[in-house]
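cron nightly-structures :: item 1 of 1
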Amino acid sequence: MSSHPNHMKGRRTALVALLAMMAFVVMATLVAADHPTNEDANNGGSGLSEWTGEWNVGAGDDLEYANQTISLDGTLIINNGGRLVLRNVTLVFHGGELEPQEINVFNGELVITDLDDNPSTVADGSTVMADDPLVHYYFQVYEDATITVANSHIMDCGRLFDVLGIQAGLYINTIDAVIEGVEFSNNFGGIFIDGVAITVSDCYIHDNDWIGIYVVNNAAPLIEDCHIEDNSREGMVIKSQSDVELRDSWVRGNMRGILVDGAYLAIYDSSISSNNEVDLDLPYFSQVEMFNCTISVSPTQPSIRMENSSLTSTHGNFDISSLDMADSVFLYRQFLTVSVKWTDSLSTPIADVPVKVEDAEARVTNYLTDEDGMVSDVPMEVVFYEMSGLGLKTTNYNPFHVTVIYLLLEKDDYVDMRYTNGLASFQYVDTVDPTAVAPIVGDADVGRPLVLDGSGSFDNVAIDDWNWSFDELGEPVYLSGEVVNHSFKEAREYTITLRVTDTTGNSGLKSITTFDVNVRDRTSPIADAGPDQTVSQGTVVTLDGTNSTDNVGIVSYTWSFTYGGAPRSLTGMIVSWKFDIPGKYAVVLRVEDAAGFTGADTMNV
């Protein structure tokens, strides 16, 4: 507020009244300008709001912004029960290099989400970013806060790694957190989870300068359906007695896959592969359990590195020779699934059939099949390695999850199954369905090739077929291949189905995925009215527009000219007109396609 001269002592009463009035006006102005203006572009706003200085969302504030860009040259603070919701908002920070701006959520709620809370709707999510990608901002959510980030994009977040690491990326220290459907890219770090149990689901965490997910201080998060790839250091780091569960996820292309240091990790139905130095690193007193996971095999370096740690794998798929152990324990567990069926073409399952399984140590166990003819979780073999001494490796061993199909000749047959050395004397059948992953595609143009890439799909062994299907012009279209190209013939939204099948022929519910592609027509038709014609009076002239073209198709032809002093209009690709009045007539042909684009051409008669 501006200062005012104080030399009118004789008029103190009037001055006091004046100051009171000015203070009221100034305070009213400040109250009205506590927050950026709401410039919702879908409701008459400009779509851009600018704010300089500290933006405080506090007691009594319940703010919602949608369909706009908020340009913030300052720090955003949410405290004292304040609430801020951003829907389809781009929040841009204009921070200084030496004093980065921040988002601090202390005791309040921040929601960053899409416009309609529907992850299948494209191009309506929010984005938090920096104006200069080399000058990052900080994003910190503390213990008493509530945070929701859904179907949105966090980028340019975090910078220097401080002592606590809270400035590395999105820092979360609250249990009231929902993180789902979020892309984290081009940050210093992706997500920093400090001492809390939260769920991070369906996120794409990639191309960050440091670690994808960093977990510390007894944190117990569930990470599920996430792709963590191409980060400059580890895909995940788990430390300080944290207890992490990783499900149905993919960790690949990072410098190192997952580092577990003095912590516990359980991994289910996931792939940790193709990381540059090592896929799984257990450097110090850690425990990892894996269930039906795939680890890549490298001919030059270990896929798993362990020291003073333990690793248990159930139904895993990797080569034990790629395990580098020092003073550690490795336990591999494998189970059989036995299916007893008739030998006829229907292969009907049979219940109550006695099954005897003899293991390598001559212990005999008897089982009965259930109503589906199945005996599951029959212990086939437990392989136990205990290694001491730096750099020692085990011998080659590559166990594999198996299913046994035993065809009975008679219902009273006794099924006697023996196996030694982890290799059963009957047929191996892979029963794990591959997982289809839809490609990330943008809008397409009619008539221009669009690449459909199915390489994100994965399997415990290998995928053999990628089948793409959709309807076009009322007819089904089928494409085959991991990467295919297609030029769409009409402008509309297409729903495309991808189904993958592995080398054994497995293909179940998770092997099918659908996604939408919006195809646009942005090409105008080209009109061709034909050559000029010179005719005699009274001749019926044929006007022919069949040489007009469009990338999709022309829906209307309109011929216009002036005859006898009056405008004339004819419609149709080919029309006729009898010219009884001598003269020169300029005939204009205008064509239009289904998208509303037009083209024109003129010929003379």
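cron nightly-structures :: done
The CA atoms of residues 448 and 457 lie 25 Å apart.
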